[in-house]
Write a structure and sequence with these properties.
This protein has 225 residues and is of the alpha/beta class. It is built from 8 helices and 10 strands.
């Protein structure tokens, strides 16, 4: 059997934290996995990808579970090198496991699925005039997210709770903040959020909660032949 689809995380693969959720929609024997930080130590990551003041910040995890903060521009450069290598290996579809904005990523012939190009217009079509509450991993990302969600009919509101570090109290605080800001639907806008995060907030708030990783996984599943 030829494996044509590969997931690409900005952290280390395989993403054991979200893999079970992805495999509810993607056949395990038809999907390969790769990571930007594969083979690197935590020290390597800090030396090569640590953000400097003024740079966009992305968040991912090491295979051992540690959260890492990464420079957006450095990650984008590294992802392009990784994408080129995956194409050379013969993959037809590359599913990026990161919801950050990347403006320059490209492929020669493979289909590149970028969540930041897929999720905002999809959410806009679903929610229409309703107010969206967006949960992000770190505070710095709130300002960066404003541009990503600029086309929503109603300006969104934001809250912070890391999928890798958050305790239940952090999710409670994020949920209460979104409730106070009038959110009608919540988007967990990081690939690291999983079903338990969704279920907890949905039960707490009594409103729909969308997982970014599920939305893109379902789309990717339709491309496997």
């Amino acid at each position: 059997m030829t494996i044509s689809l590969v997931t690409l995380t900005i952290g280390q693969s395989p993403r054991s934290d979200i893999l079970p959720l992805l495999l509810e929609h993607l056949p395990a024997d038809q999907v390969a996995h790769a990571g930007l930080l594969d083979g690197l130590t935590l020290t390597d990551v800090e030396q090569q990808y640590a953000p400097t003041p003024g740079e966009t910040v992305l968040v991912s995890r090491m295979i051992s579970g540690e959260q890492v903060r990464l420079s957006g521009p450095k990650v984008e450069q590294g992802l392009q090198r990784k994408i080129n290598a995956l194409e050379e290996q013969g993959y037809d579809t590359i599913l990026l496991l990161c919801t950050g904005e990347f403006g320059t990523l490209k492929t020669q012939s493979a289909l590149l699925l970028e969540p930041d190009r897929i999720i905002p217009p999809l959410v806009r079509a679903i929610v229409q005039q309703h107010k969206v509450g967006i949960v992000v991993p770190v505070t710095e990302q709130i300002a960066e997210q404003a541009n990503k969600w600029r086309n929503l009919d109603t300006p969104p509101c934001f809250a912070v709770a890391s999928p890798y570090l958050a305790e239940q109290a952090d999710l409670v605080e994020a949920g209460l903040s979104l409730q106070e800001q009038g959110a009608d639907v919540v988007v967990l806008d990081c690939i690291g959020y999983h079903q338990q995060h969704r279920d907890f907030l949905q039960k707490m708030l009594g409103i729909p909660v969308l997982l970014s990783n599920v939305l893109v996984a379902k789309l990717a599943a339709e491309l496997i032949v």
